[in-house]
Structure formats: C-alpha cells, structure tokens
C-alpha cells in the first residue's frame, strides 16, 4: 500500500501504469476463475507437486533439506547435461503458448533463460506453464532443471545456457506493479538514443525514483557491479598497505572540535557539551604515528557540512586514508602511493572483468591503462609541457583544476594512454 | 610549554617531577659546560662524525641515501655479525662509566640493547658515549652497529641480541620530562603488587593521564599489540566473509530517522532538517539483501547516545556486522558465524603469538581455546544444564546475563575448556 501511494513520485508513464494494472487485474481474475472453475483440471494435474507457491512457514527454518543452490553466474557450458537448482528474481516472463513459456531469472549481475515445455516425460503440465507465467516480475523463484546449450547465442541473458525446467516454486511473490521496472533502470544512454531514432520513447527512471526505491534500483546489474568493485578496491587498499606494514585503525568520528580547517563541520550535542563530526581522520592518524605505529591506514566515513553542490563536495563519504613515518625523503610516500594504485588497477583488471564489463554496458568508460612502473614527472617538466601547450603557470604556483586536467591530457597524448601520473610533481 | 602547563593533570608524583627537573637541569648545564669549556676536547674528537643531532633540514627530503633500516623486531640470532641500521625511541639510557653506556631502543612492541664502548678501533669516543647518555627518554635515535649475541639472556629487552654501536644520531630530541613515563605505563598489576610487598611504591599512570597524552600512552607494548590484534581481527572478518561470497558495504551514518528502537540517538541538524547518527547499519544491510546482494558485511562506526556507564554501553564503537539471505534454515547463519569465529581464533593463534604474549605481560588472560567444529547445544540442553546446576529458567524464557555467564562456565567445565559456544541455542 505504501508502495502504491508513493507511485506518483515514480516516472513510470501513466499509460504504462494503467496497462500494468489492467494486466494484473486480468491475471488475478484468470487465476480466480482457474481455481473456481477448473477443480477437475487441477485434480487431473499429475504434476501438481512440481510447482506452486511455497508457504511462508515452509521456509522459516522448518527443515534442512540438504539441497544446494547453484549460482546463476556459475552456469556455463561445462554444466550442460547437469541437473541444477537455482534461486533468482523473475526478470522477464514470456508465455509463447499454452504449452510453452520462457522465464528469465536474475541473480546479482547474471541472468539465465529457463524454458518450460509441457510434457509428461519431463513432469511439466500446462497448469505449471500457466503458473510460471502468472508470476509477477521480481518475484523470488526456485527452479530445478537440466542445463542445455542453446542452438544460437542468447542475446537477452548473460549466461549462454538454458534451463529445461522440471520444477518451479515461488518463494515470494512481488506486488504486480513495481515502482521501478528493472529493464528501464538498467538502460544505457546509447539505448535511449537508439530508441529515439526509431521513434520509440523509452521510460527513464530518474534519480529521485531510484533513491526512493533504492532497494529495487540496487538490483540493476551496473549497481551490483559498482558495489562489488568498491569492495574489491577497499580489499586491495587494505591488503596492499597491510603487506607494507601499515596497520588499519579506526579513529573517533564524534569529536570535541573541528579536525581540519577549511571544511564546514556538523555540530551536535554530546551529553550537554558541544561536539562535532570528524571532517578527517588526520589528527588521529598523526597521533598514531607519534604513538609509534609507524604506518597506519583507515577506511571510514568522513563528514563535511558542505553546501557546495559539486561532485567534489560531499556531506558524507568513505575516506581511504593512509599516513606514514618518512625516514628521509617524501619519495618514500610517493612510492607507496604508486605501488598502491598499480596494485588496485592490476587487481581490478585481473579479477573484476565481469564487473567492469557489466558497468560498461550501462555506463561506457575507457579501459583502465597504466604503467607497471609509474611515470614520474618533476614539477618543472610538467610546467614545461603546459607552457609548450600554451598554458602559462606562475613560477612555483599551484596547478588549478583546469591546468591539472590539461596536463593529464598532455601526458596521455605524449606517453600513449598513460592514465596514472603519480603525485610526485613537486 | 603546553605539555608542562598540563603536567598538573598527570599523576607523576611531585617528588619524581622535581627529581627529573633537577636531573634535566643538571644535564643541560653539564652539556653547556661541555660545549663552552671543552672546545679542545671537541676538536680533538677524531670520531665526531659518528654521532650528533641531525639538523631538521637534513631529514626534510634533502637526499635519498639508499640506506635501509632494519626493524628492531627482526633482530634475532641469525643477524649476529651483521652491521645494521635501526631507528627507535630511546627507552632507557644507562651510563656505566665515562667509557661505556647502554641505550635501549624501542620500536613498536620490540626493544633492543645498544652497547657503547669507547674504543678507537670501533670509532667510538668518550664524547660519543657522553652524547648518547645525554639524550632524553623517548627521543628518536638512529643507531648503526654490529649485532652480537649476549653471554646471558637479556631480561630487559624483547630482542635477544645486542648492538655494538658504531654510530649514533639523534633525529629528534624529546623534552627532558614527559608527562608519562613509559615504564610506569606498561606495568602489570602483578608488578605493582610485587613492589608493594617489597615496600616499594611505583608510579601509576591513571586513565585520565593516559587519555590526555594518548600519543605517548599508545607507545606501551600492550597498546601496540592491542591495535595490531584489532586490525588482524578485522582483516580476518573481512577475508572470511568475502570468501563466503559476502560483499563489504558502507551504509550511511547521517540519516533521517532513528535506525533501531531501544537505543538513544544523537540528533543533529542537516541543512535545516532534523537528522541523526545511525545506531546500526541494520536497515541498510536489509536493503542490500532486498537489493540482491545476497550476503553483505560492514565494518564501521555505530553511534548510540547512551547514558549508561557499563562496558556494554558505548556512545561510539566499531561494529562488525553481517547480514545474509537464508535459503531454508537459520542454521545457515549459525554455520557462517561458527566458521567465522573459528577462523579468527585460529588466525590469531597462528599469526599473533607475539602480540598475544605482549598483551599478556601487562594484562594477563587465559589462552584462547576452541574446537575446530564448534559445540552446538540446543536450547533444551542448555536449560537442562542450568537446571541441574540449580538455576531455574522460565520455560522458553530468555537467558539473562547472569544465566548466560553461568552456562558459559558450565560448558567450559563439562567440555574441557571450550570457550566458544555458537549462538545456536534456539
């Protein structure tokens, strides 16, 4: 009910909504009719045990069946011929005839096509086919079936196998009309443009709707991949620094005074005394170094009461911070940062191809390129490059954002696609 | 100056303070006298280059010498005969004669004894011996020397080797009297008791002083070890869950409403609107599960405006949280928790012996014991054990803290020292 009341905020076209509502009503009536008018047919279904809604009590820690579910992402050609059990969200439901239907199940970034064909040999009845197509999108569904290889490559799913369904159970039905249609939410700009060229108008899910129904929006493959990449970056950040003798710490976030000048603070009351939220772990990292830790890092929230609306100003973000004792030269820090970034880039390229490709489908980006040994430019070399390109910088002056970006482009042109220049420009 | 003004807050006895001050004054005068009255002696020192204060400019990224510093913790018998360079804090300075002195250097949890003996062969002058003993405690010192094996085991240091000093340079001098004496701060209760029995009164560093001078208190070996153990626990928590397909997330801490009933919230203003600090990542973990992540964990701060002063009530702490989809039985969660704790315990026992021993010296504890496959008791079995021991629990009632503790003791007695009972008591 709350979801429906909120629907006005969604950007689904009213036409679509009405259409969906009519469809749902029709399906509801049809299923009622079925139950009332076809008791004979129901009784006649020899395979009634092979499908149906699983009552809530059944999945509330009643029994341990010992069954094991295969991840949809793991279904590949090697699984052909195997009988598998999978659980996923019903992404698309496509009835072909009374005797045949397709159901695409999704689990995280992966989708697989499940094929239902009524046949006594397979234990699949026409009622079972009807049951499968009566499911609402995003319902959680268990499918048991045999993995087969399709004759032609599948375009609509990530997995290049099909499941010949033997059993299908609904664990939890979604409401008939969701505020976000996942296919709409997962489209790239290119798809929108292509549709427009064809005179077709696709539904766009806007930012507010995405945030209002975050739990649904999170299900798009790109979001699934982005969160996984974030976790990989943090893991590698920690792992690399730990291997370089850094210790992970957690510094206080509720503090007695502002921790850094320049940024605005969130103030609050702490047992009758004024307090604020940490804008940076800086002070605590430095205390750790004075405290004899030598090298520390922290991954944690940073709070800044910023009123600027740019992508560089956030009220709350996760900071990946590091601090180290320098023995004799600040190049020691540069070398660590260099090694850190190369390690992270390398890890992502080697371990997150699937995630990167998934993000790339919705939000295209250039591939990550870097040198094993990072290019180091001195300040003078950088200034010289800018000067030659017509940008004048005051002697010993700071580089502003514009100049920084330009230098990045110049470096990329000159050194063939090197995206990463270390902060060693003194 | 600030440190001195604050000394009244410290618990160092006034007697000790005066004594220290007198000593420092004397040392200062002596060094002045030395510099003023013995120019000949200074000039006559052929080995003047082998010791001295390093001027600040020298260590400000002037040059990369290519030298490498050995960690004090790595100095073992295998290093005997080798020439090493180490950097540490001067923990104790013990002049034996004009020609001989001992300096103990500390780095994190490790200490090593450095021996200075004036000898032309070694390039060590009496002036160098005097220089070394003129250093104030906690000064940062570089020592170059040859590793030798002592005739008898060393009691005062962790490393069982000595350094025959060839060169000694002070990187940064500490003020003569510090608010916390590290030896005082690192004592165990047993040492205090023993001293008292001998009629000796040792200085106790109280909690307030420790917190007021946290950067110094952090240097005690036990604190060094505790922070390292914390980091290891977090690493293993993440590593184990990640290997079980959990994804690490970071949920918002600044939120629009309270995230959990029962606990008090910190309120603040967010751009003119009421907001509060998250008391739990619960809601966001659940949204992640609904969002299709399947399994998530989070390590991050939790804020509770608690007014209770117990060790179970904290205003800010780091929560190690996990949330997972259950397929059919909550034992799936129990098994993950079980595996997680065993993995953490195992990791600590196998990789953190040095840290555990270091903590044990100041804060003795019983060794960590656990079963590879965790003992599972049903609720009924637990209640039966309590009943037999004379504690009556209402049928199907919750166990209160007292009963929980008692059951822990009973399990430990019955199953020979098993500390870990899984939360599977339904």
TrEMBL record, chains A, B:
Gene3D superfamilies noted in UniProt: Bira Bifunctional Protein, Domain 2 (3.30.930.10), Nucleic acid-binding proteins (2.40.50.140)
GO BP: aspartyl-tRNA aminoacylation
Annotated region described as Disordered, given as residue ranges: 14-44
Gene Ontology MF annotations: aspartate-tRNA ligase activity; ATP binding; RNA binding
SUPFAM superfamilies: Class II aaRS and biotin synthetases (SSF55681), Nucleic acid-binding proteins (SSF50249)
Residue stretches making up the Aminoacyl-transfer RNA synthetases class-II family profile domain: 227-419
A Pfam match: tRNA-synt_2
Catalytic activity, EC: 6.1.1.12
Reaction it catalyzes: tRNA(Asp) + L-aspartate + ATP = L-aspartyl-tRNA(Asp) + AMP + diphosphate
Domain of life (superkingdom): Eukaryota
Subcellular location, record wording: Cytoplasm
Keywords: Aminoacyl-tRNA synthetase, ATP-binding, Cytoplasm, Ligase, Nucleotide-binding, Protein biosynthesis
One GO cellular component, as annotated: aminoacyl-tRNA synthetase multienzyme complex
Main localization (coarse): cytoplasm
Bias-annotated ranges (Basic and acidic residues): 18-28
Entry similarity comment: Belongs to the class-II aminoacyl-tRNA synthetase family. Type 2 subfamily.
Classification via PANTHER family: ASPARTATE--TRNA LIGASE, CYTOPLASMIC, ASPARTYL-TRNA SYNTHETASE
Name by which UniProt lists this protein: aspartate--tRNA ligase
